[in-house]
């Protein structure tokens, strides 16, 4: 008798949760975040608005936005002992592994760790969002033998983050582009890292553990790790023609091209990538050099013609970060930092309406 249930590899198309947080509406080609369209938000709002929307369910007014900035600022510092832990890591540690370690080490500093109430989880998420720029930047700096970067309280959240990364106070247009990238990265329904965080949270595990699992998931190059992989690939050559040739060679060797394809948007461009492509144009025009844009466009054409595949957000976020002077090793940690807002909202929701994730298998082993 065949007792097997339908097995869906990679759980493609399987509904794993009911959520009020976000939805990829592929019919209307919209990314919905708590009833708002993400692309609209990226034109009218900033990353802190998005943080508030994700955690509180509505957009902040001017006064609330300013309170939020102040609140995050009070949490900018990270414990000296966490810095010591990061300093002990060997220099060949991947920045995502260092970030994972730093994030995980913070749990011991939470006096209210066992409190899973919505309010306690939100406060925890705000504390983490305050600390994320310092953890992200300093985990990278310490493994590279550099001195700890200090925050500048006079700057906006995103300007300070960029300042800590580059060591230079950014121009307003640079902050705007960086902030937009954080907003676009902040939430995206049920990617692997969000699923991971929710699976961990479903055991009643805390926010730190759930997010630490999220970092591990996001590091993989089929997910967030693709952004750094895109930049290494672009840096292999120097012209659009050479990039086309490189991609054709990789395709002939049956390699996957990083930054293309998506489980949900296989047959069209990720709408977030379009916004980042516009930012890349702006950056190239400011510099008076369109080479990187031309290379990316050449890559788009090859992938469309050869594979019918389109860019995802990582494909255009990578060259934007390059043009902003961000070290490649920080691309995926920045993605995680931005996604902490969305992941925290999901962990809070999971704790609120929890049922343990525990699926079954179809056994294909030795007979018994
Ligand atoms: C922000 C983000 O995390 S977005 C995702 C970032 N990841 C990447 O850019 C990595 C490159 N892309 C991929 O590996 C995939 O497109 C994924 C993982 C994103 C989606 O994967 P899935 O939905 O599982 O599709 P899957 O990997 O099965 O691909 C289906 C087919 O398209 C091909 N394909 C998919 N993406 C690519 C790619 N980037 N390059 C070349 N071929 C590809 C596969 O080889 C496969 O072909 P086949 O049917 O002939 O074997
Ligand atoms: O949705 C996904 O599977 C991956 C993705 O684009 C994201 O996490 O932003």
TrEMBL record:
Pathway: Carbohydrate metabolism; tricarboxylic acid cycle; isocitrate from oxaloacetate: step 1/2. The gene is mmgD. Belongs to the citrate synthase family. The active site is at residues 262, 314. GO terms for cellular component: cytosol. One of its GO terms (molecular function) is citrate synthase activity. Transmembrane segments: none annotated. The keyword Lipid biosynthesis does not apply. CDD domains: citrate_synt_like_1 (cd06118). This is Citrate synthase. SUPFAM superfamilies: Citrate synthase.
């Amino acid at each position: 008798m065949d007792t097997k249930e339908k097995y869906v590899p990679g759980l493609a198309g399987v509904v794993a949760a009911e959520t009020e947080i976000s939805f990829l509406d592929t019919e209307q080609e919209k990314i919905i975040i708590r009833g708002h369209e993400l692309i609209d938000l990226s034109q009218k709002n900033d990353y802190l608005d998005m943080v508030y929307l994700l955690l509180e369910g509505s957009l902040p007014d001017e006064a609330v936005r300013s309170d939020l900035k102040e609140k995050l600022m009070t949490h900018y510092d990270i414990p000296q002992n966490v810095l010591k832990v990061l300093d002990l890591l060997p220099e060949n540690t991947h920045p995502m592994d260092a970030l994972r370690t730093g994030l995980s080490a913070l749990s011991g500093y939470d006096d209210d760790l066992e409190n899973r109430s919505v309010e306690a989880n939100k406060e925890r998420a705000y504390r983490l969002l305050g600390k994320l720029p310092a953890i992200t930047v300093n985990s990278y700096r310490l493994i590279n033998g550099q001195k700890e970067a200090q925050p500048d309280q006079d700057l906006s959240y995103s300007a300070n983050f960029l300042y800590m990364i580059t060591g230079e106070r950014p121009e307003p247009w640079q902050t705007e582009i960086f902030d937009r990238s954080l907003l676009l990265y902040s939430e995206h329904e049920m990617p692997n890292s969000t699923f991971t965080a929710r699976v961990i949270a479903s055991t009643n595990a805390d926010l730190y553990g759930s997010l630490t699992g999220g970092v591990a998931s996001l590091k993989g190059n089929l997910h967030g790790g693709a952004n750094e992989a895109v930049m290494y690939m672009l840096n292999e050559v120097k012209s659009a023609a050479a990039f086309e040739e490189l991609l054709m060679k990789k395709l002939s060797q049956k390699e996957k091209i990083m930054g293309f394809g998506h489980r949900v948007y296989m047959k069209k461009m990720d709408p977030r990538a379009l916004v980042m492509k516009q930012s890349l144009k702006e950056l190239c025009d400011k510099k008076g050099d369109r080479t990187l844009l031309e290379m990316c466009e050449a890559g788009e054409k090859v992938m469309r013609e050869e594979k019918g595949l389109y860019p995802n957000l990582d494909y255009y976020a990578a060259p934007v970060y390059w043009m902003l002077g961000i070290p490649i090793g920080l691309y995926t940690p920045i993605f995680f930092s931005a996604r902490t807002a969305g992941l925290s909202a999901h962990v809070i929701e999971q704790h609120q309406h929890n049922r343990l994730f525990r699926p079954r298998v179809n056994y294909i082993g030795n007979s018994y």
